[in-house]
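Subject: Oxidative stress-induced growth inhibitor 1 structure
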Amino acid sequence: MRNAGTQYSDHALRAMDLEEDHIVPRDVLPVVVIGNGPSGICLSYLLSGYVPYLSPEGSHPNPILHSKLQHHPHLSLLEQDLEYLCEGLEGRSSNPVAVLFDSLLLPDSDFGADYPSPLVWRYEPERAIPHVVLGRGPPGGAWHAMEGSMLTLSLANWMELPGLKLKDWVREKRRSVRNDRATPAEIASYYQHYVTLMGLQERFVCGTTVTSLRRVSTATGEAWRVSGLRREAGAELPFTLYAERAVLATGTHDIPARLGVPGEGLPFVCHGFSELEAAIAAGRLGQSADPVLVVGAGLTAADAVLAARHLNAPVRHAFRRAVNDPALIFNQLPKVLYPEYHKVHQMMTQQQAGGETSSEPTCSGSYPGYVSFPRHRVLAFRPDRKCVLEGDGGQRTVLQVSTVLVLIGSHPNLSFLPGNGQPLGVEPGEPISCRRNPLQVDPYTHECAGEPGLYAMGPLVGENFVRFLKGGALAIAAHLGRGRRGEGERSGGRDELPRAPDS
């Protein structure tokens, strides 16, 4: 692959010079991206001169979308009116550009179709926008910290980024993708190699922790000042850089969500999958040990149930929803594609604790050793390793446990922003949450409401799936490109972009 804009890489790295404590105005970068997971990687690809066009031979199964694309076939997708193209499209995302880009990259994939994408990618280095991508670890972000043997929820092709088929890459590594899915370890390796193969590596500065992002005035106008620490030669050294635009792509896996009940800080109460692995390594789990209590009804909780069951450890499983609640993730997954999660859902349904109970229930049925507690909440943890649960009807159960795993989601670490980023949320003043309170952005540019020049993408705007976060990259890259071409910034209404007259 060609190196995307090498002429800018030296400039970007000079901006990270650890000998300086500030950057003079001539060193202001056009764009800084905070976060080097798949969101930041995809945006870097688009900002490095890789541009999507409608292929002359391409067609889309949606005739209305195909007709719209043919109105200006000579223009790249980055130059077209995204709001116009999004009109009438429906999909499994609340962000319209995410639905559009997903439909173009994976036409009708939700219906099991395997249509080729009508897009063709061209490398146009003159369109590249200088930028730098900051991340704490290697490219791939949180995927490097996930348990490496579990299968991903998404199909393998949903995890890939533009320009490199995941299956082709896996095949070159002499591995096969099981059931059209891959492990987090494979996905993390794919993202890391993607950066190298696409010539993006000089854009990425890893080993950095951002501690402050503030808008400041410089001799040439307003800019974003980014301060933090960078690991180098075993030490953490301070850095500061300035940028005209800043993009938040940090994800939401930084801070595990907590129940907020008495005793949650006791040593046997854990909040991460890695702590389960540590308990296994220490020999605290097993057939003869007291039960493991898993709290939560998401996929990470299901993975913990499967891991504990693999050791024949007794499991108690408590969660707030009913097993037939449509919002429960297990009720949204095809059984054929996700047999292991279907099995956990069967366990949750068939092995329920019932009736008025005040002590440890007995285990019976098809899954000995496992008991679920639907529509229960945790009241307290006690130092003697007892947990008090309460059901919807007010009945209480006291469980003797060896380890507790509270796996109820996570929150982003936005401590580098004023007010931890809360003023930027859909509900200002409330903690930022991917599901309950994402950052409020313009749906067609992903620029933060009330903060011109600040953008957000990925889980921070409610996108948990890689297949949809790529739409945020398209929206941001298109808006940044329009600004650099002097076509005007978006302020209130839509930018004046080419679109066909109404028929």
